[in-house]
Amino acid sequence: MTKTKVLTGITTTGTPHLGNYLGAIKPAIEESWRDDIQSYYFLADYHSLIKGRDPKRIHQSSLEIAATWLALGLDTDRVTFYRQSDVPEIMELNWIIGCMTAKGLMNRAHAYKAAVQDNVENEQNDPDFGITMGLFSYPVLMAADILMFGAKKVPVGQDQVQHLEMARDIAKRMNHHYKTKFVLPEAIVDENTSVLNGLDGRKMSKSYDNTIPMFVPEKKLLKLIRKIKTNSLEPGEPKDPSTCTLFQIFSAFATEEEALAKKAQYEAGAGWGDLKNELFEYLNEKLKEPRERYNELLQDPAFIEAELRKGAEKARAEAAPFLRHIRQAVGIKGFV
Length: 336
Ligand code: TRP
Hints:
Elements: E1 4-11, H1 18-31, E2 37-44, H2 45-51, H3 55-71, E3 80-83, H4 89-98, H5 103-107, H6 110-121, H7 133-148, E4 153-155, H8 161-178, E5 186-188, H9 218-227, H10 245-253, H11 256-267, H12 272-298, H13 301-330
Helix pairs in contact: 2-7, 3-12, 4-7, 4-13, 7-8, 9-12, 10-12
Bound molecules: tryptophan.
Pfam families: tRNA-synt_1b
Subunit structure: Homodimer.
Protein name: Tryptophan--tRNA ligase
C-alpha cells in the first residue's frame, strides 16, 4: 500500500493547552494509527526563535511539548517524531529554496503584513521597525520542513493555509526550473475540531493568555475552571448551552449522549457553580492518567531525548539522500 505522508510541526513556545490538544494533538495521534498514513510530527524549535528570545523558555517548551505527545500515547515506532534542529538538512534546504523564492511572495505573508500594519498604525517612521528576517522568511523554513519529506497532507490551523500555498508555489518553481520532483503539499484544516474557547470566551490561545494548560495540577485545574466567564443567570433559571464556554469545553471531550444530558441540565436551570464543579470532575477524570505519565516523563528527560534522537535518525535517513539529490540538481556537488 502506498501511504500518504502527513506532516505537521509544533512551534516550541509555551505549554500545550486544551485547545492545542483538541485542535492538533488528538487528531494527529489518532491519525497516526491508520495504516494508510505515514506521519511526521516535529518540534519546530527553530521557528520558535522568531517568537521568543528566552533560551530557558524555548528549551522548557520543547521538553513539555515532547512530554505531552508521548504522555498521550504517541507511538514513536509508527511515527517519525523529531526535533527540527536535529535534522540540519532542513536548514540547508531552507537556503536552497529561499534562493528560488520571490521576495514579493514573502511580502504578502499575513504575519509579516500584520507586523507592518501595526507599525503603520502606531505611526512608526519605519514600517519594518522591529521585524526580523526570521519573521519575514518564516514561510520558507516552513516550506523546507514540508518539502523535505514529500508530505502530501499538512494539518494546520486556518492561519497557516497561506503558508501552504507558498510552499506549493516554491515547489512548483523548483520543479519547473531544476526539473526536481517536489511533492506539492495541501493544507488540511479540520473545521470541526479547530477552535476551543478560553477562560474569557475568546478563542483559547496563548496570545490572549486565556488558556487551560493540559496538565496543570488538579487544584489549579479547578481554579481555572472556576474562572471561566459565564453570564449572571441564577440557579433555577434556564441557560443556553450554545453560547457557553463551559459547555463547549465539556462537549469537546464528551460523547454525544453525555453532551445531550448536559444540555438538559442547562435547560433545567442548573447553577453555574455546579456546572463548573462537574466540568472539573469530568475533565480531571480524563486527564488524570496522561497527567501522571506526563509528570513521570518530565522527571526523565533522558528518555525523551532518546525518543527524539531515534526520530531524528529516522528523519535524517530520508533527508540526507534527498538533500544530496537536490544539491546535485542545483549544481552543488563535487568534481569527481
Ligand atoms: N508555523 C506552524 C504554526 O505556527 C508550525 C510549523 C512549522 C509547521 N513548520 C511546519 C506546521 C510545517 C506544519 C508544517 O502552527
